[in-house]
Amino acid sequence: MTRRHQRFTRALILGATLALPIAGIAPVASAQAQTTDDLSAVNRAIRALSTLSGNFTQTDARGQVQSGKLLLKQPGQIRFDYGAGDLLIVADGKSLYMVDYQVGQVQRWPIRNSPLGALLDPTRDLAKYGKLAPTGDPRVVSVEVRDPGHPEYGVISLIFMRKPGAPAGLELYGWVAKDAQGNRTSIRLTNLSYGSAIADSAFKWRDPRPNRGVGPR
Which residues lie below 8 Å from residue 30, measured CB to CB, with a gap of 6+? Predict the structure, then answer.
């Protein structure tokens, strides 16, 4: 695996703390009530997402920044187009692929074996795998998701902002991913749009390996 592949693998698939735009104001009055209600709301918000499109900014543990376009369609489909056009990360409902057009290589992971399974695996129950993390700001909800039976999958902290009109009243702001080696990376989402029609063909991809054609869905 090249050093470039290692960086992007740590950065998005396995993996800078996500900087919130709102400084901590005051803790929510009842932590226990918040845990129960907000964890349920986050679960509903994820399940209510049919499609999502927008921009993303990725910052790794070294402070390196990449940006691009994001498409998400449930169940289990996501696409990260990086601005340079030489790297694509895409999930087809079953597997997550990293396609490096610069070196002509493809890597594959089952969706549930990565922290992104918290968003893309419809069988993942946050009530079982997630716990609310304190934010100090009643407008911000953070849920840490890990599989205690598989620490090698890493940890993802999903960050939501309360917003009327968003699914279950919560808008996905981004996430912080940490791999088993402790490498941390953040993804910040902007310009989000919900419910727009996205064709399944958006999650197909050109395989850069010789005689492979179009990648699977």
Answer: none
